[in-house]
C-alpha cells in the first residue's frame, strides 16, 4: 500500500499550476496510482473553479460584448472542427533486459538513452525545467546508492519494483521528498525503476563513498 | 521558485464540502456546453463566452500582470472550450470546474512558453482532459506496426497528422487528399513538409 504522498500544500500548488513542470509530472504520475490523492485534487479544482468563476456581477450579456470581443467570438466559432480526443499509447521501455511500462504522463515526453554505471542506469527526461533535472533511474537487483545527503532536494517516485532505506520499505506509487535534513542509503533487493527530480548534486558523506562523485553526477 | 514541502505519510480525504455556488447558473452553463458539443451551437457558445471571458481575463491579469497576456489566455481558453466541448462529461462535475481545468492548462502552457521558451504544450500530459481508455484505432494500427511512429504522429498538430495519415497510411494521392479535406493542394504539400520535418526532429532526438 502506498504510504508516502504529496503534502496537501503541494497538491494545491499542483492544481493551480504553480509547480515546476518536472514536479507537476511527478504529482500527475502519483495521482494515476493513488485514487485518494486524485479525489483530493478534484475537490481542490472544484473549489478553485468556485473562487474564479463565482458570480462577481461583471457578467456580460451577449448583447454587451464590445467590438473586439465580438470579433474574437466570431474568430473562434468560424472554424467548426473539433480537437481529437487525446490518446496516449502505453509505452514500454527496456532497461537491462527488463521491460517496464512508462506512466501515462511520461508516454509523450521523450527521454534520453540510459547511461549505466554498475547497477545504476539513468535516462534524462527531456523537460527543460530550469535548475531542476528529472530522470528515470533504474537500480538492478541487489544495488544500492551510497549514503548521501541532499544540498537541494530530491524527489523520488517509485514506479516499479521496491527499495528500502533506513526509514522504510517503499512500494510503487510512494512519493518521497528529501532535502538537506535527510540522509539515506537506498537499497533494492529485487530492482526498481524510479522517476526522480533533483535540484542540485548529491553529497556523499562516508569513507570510500566520497570517491563516488561520478555517481552523484550520474544521478543528478 | 520554491516549494514548501514536508513529507506526508498519509492520505486522508478531506470530507468537508466545498462552498456551493448559489449565484452560478450551473445548469445553464452545463446545458450550453452540451449544446456546443452536440450541435456546434454558436448562441450557446456566445453565452459561455459572455459568462467566462471577463472572469478569465481577471484571472489572467493576476497571473501575468499584463492585459495583453490576459486576453491571450481568454482566447486560448475559450478556443479550447469551443473545440473540446465534447470532452466535457456532465456526470463528472460542474461546467465551471471543467472550464477551470482548461484555463489552468492554457495558463501553464503560456507560462512555460514565456519562462523557458518551450512550446511543447505538455499541460495535457500533466492534467489530462480525458480519462484514459482503451484505444482501438484499428484502421490505423493495422497499417502501422511501429508503435513508436504512431506516438510521434500523435505529437503532430491535427491538420498535419491528417495529411500524413492520408498520404502514407491510406495511400491517397495529394490531389485526392486536397479534395477530401477541401484545402488547396499547396496546403497539403506544406503541411506534409512541416510534418515530416517535425517527425525527423523527433526521431533524431530519440536516437542520440
UniProtKB/TrEMBL annotation, chain A:
<dbReference type="InterPro" id="IPR025979">
    <property type="entry name" value="ChrR-like_cupin_dom"/>
</dbReference>
<dbReference type="Pfam" id="PF12973">
    <property type="entry name" value="Cupin_7"/>
</dbReference>
<protein>
    <submittedName>
        <fullName>ChrR family anti-sigma-E factor</fullName>
    </submittedName>
</protein>
<feature type="domain" description="ChrR-like cupin">
    <location>
        <begin position="134"/>
        <end position="197"/>
    </location>
</feature>
<dbReference type="InterPro" id="IPR011051">
    <property type="entry name" value="RmlC_Cupin_sf"/>
</dbReference>
<dbReference type="InterPro" id="IPR012807">
    <property type="entry name" value="Anti-sigma_ChrR"/>
</dbReference>
<dbReference type="InterPro" id="IPR041916">
    <property type="entry name" value="Anti_sigma_zinc_sf"/>
</dbReference>
<dbReference type="InterPro" id="IPR014710">
    <property type="entry name" value="RmlC-like_jellyroll"/>
</dbReference>
Amino acid at each position: 500500500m502506498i504510504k508516502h504522498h504529496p503534502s496537501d500544500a503541494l497538491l494545491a500548488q499542483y492544481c493551480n499550476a504553480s509547480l515546476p513542470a518536472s514536479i507537476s509530472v511527478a504529482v500527475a504520475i502519483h495521482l494515476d496510482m493513488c485514487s485518494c490523492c486524485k479525489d483530493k485534487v478534484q475537490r481542490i479544482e472544484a473549489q478553485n473553479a468556485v473562487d474564479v468563476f463565482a458570480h462577481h456581477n461583471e457578467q456580460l450579456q451577449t448583447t454587451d460584448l464590445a467590438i473586439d470581443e465580438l470579433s474574437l467570438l466570431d474568430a473562434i466559432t468560424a472554424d467548426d472542427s473539433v480537437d481529437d480526443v487525446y490518446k496516449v499509447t502505453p509505452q514500454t521501455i527496456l532497461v537491462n533486459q527488463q521491460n517496464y511500462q512508462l506512466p501515462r504522463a511520461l508516454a509523450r515526453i521523450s527521454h534520453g538513452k540510459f547511461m549505466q554505471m554498475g547497477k545504476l542506469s539513468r535516462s534524462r527526461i527531456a523537460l527543460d525545467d530550469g535548475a531542476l533535472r528529472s530522470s528515470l533511474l533504474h537500480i538492478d537487483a541487489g544495488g544500492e546508492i551510497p549514503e548521501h545527503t541532499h544540498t537541494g532536494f530530491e524527489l523520488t517516485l517509485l514506479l516499479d519494483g521496491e527499495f528500502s532505506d533506513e526509514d522504510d520499505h517503499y512500494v510503487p506509487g510512494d512519493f518521497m521528498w528529501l532535502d538537506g535534513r535527510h540522509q539515506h542509503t537506498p537499497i533494492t533487493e529485487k530492482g526498481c525503476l524510479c522517476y526522480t527530480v533533483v535540484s542540485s548534486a548529491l553529497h556523499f558523506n562516508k569513507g570510500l563513498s566520497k570517491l563516488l562523485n561520478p555517481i552523484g553526477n550520474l544521478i543528478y | 521558485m520554491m516549494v514548501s514541502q514536508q513529507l506526508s505519510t498519509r492520505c486522508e480525504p478531506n470530507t468537508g464540502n466545498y462552498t456551493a455556488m448559489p449565484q452560478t447558473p450551473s445548469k445553464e452553463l452545463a446545458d450550453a456546453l452540451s449544446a456546443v458539443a452536440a450541435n456546434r451551437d454558436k448562441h450557446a457558445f456566445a453565452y459561455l463566452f459572455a459568462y467566462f471571458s471577463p472572469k478569465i481575463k481577471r484571472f489572467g491579469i493576476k497571473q501575468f500582470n499584463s492585459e495583453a497576456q490576459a486576453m491571450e489566455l481568454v482566447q486560448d481558453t475559450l478556443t479550447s472550450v469551443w473545440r473540446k466541448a465534447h470532452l466535457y462529461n456532465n456526470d463528472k462535475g460542474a461546467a465551471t470546474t471543467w472550464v477551470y481545468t482548461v484555463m489552468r492548462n492554457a495558463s501553464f502552457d503560456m507560462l512555460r512558453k514565456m519562462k523557458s521558451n518551450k512550446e511543447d504544450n505538455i499541460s495535457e500530459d500533466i492534467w489530462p482532459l480525458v480519462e484514459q481508455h482503451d484505444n482501438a484505432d484499428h484502421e490505423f494500427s493495422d497499417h502501422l506496426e511501429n508503435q513508436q511512429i504512431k506516438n510521434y504522429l500523435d505529437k503532430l498538430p491535427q491538420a498535419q497528422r491528417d495529411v500524413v495519415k492520408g498520404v502514407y497510411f491510406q495511400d491517397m494521392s495529394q490531389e485526392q487528399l486536397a479534395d477530401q479535406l477541401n484545402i488547396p493542394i499547396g496546403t497539403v504539400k506544406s503541411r506534409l513538409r512541416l510534418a515530416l520535418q517535425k517527425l525527423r526532429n523527433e526521431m533524431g532526438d530519440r536516437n542520440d
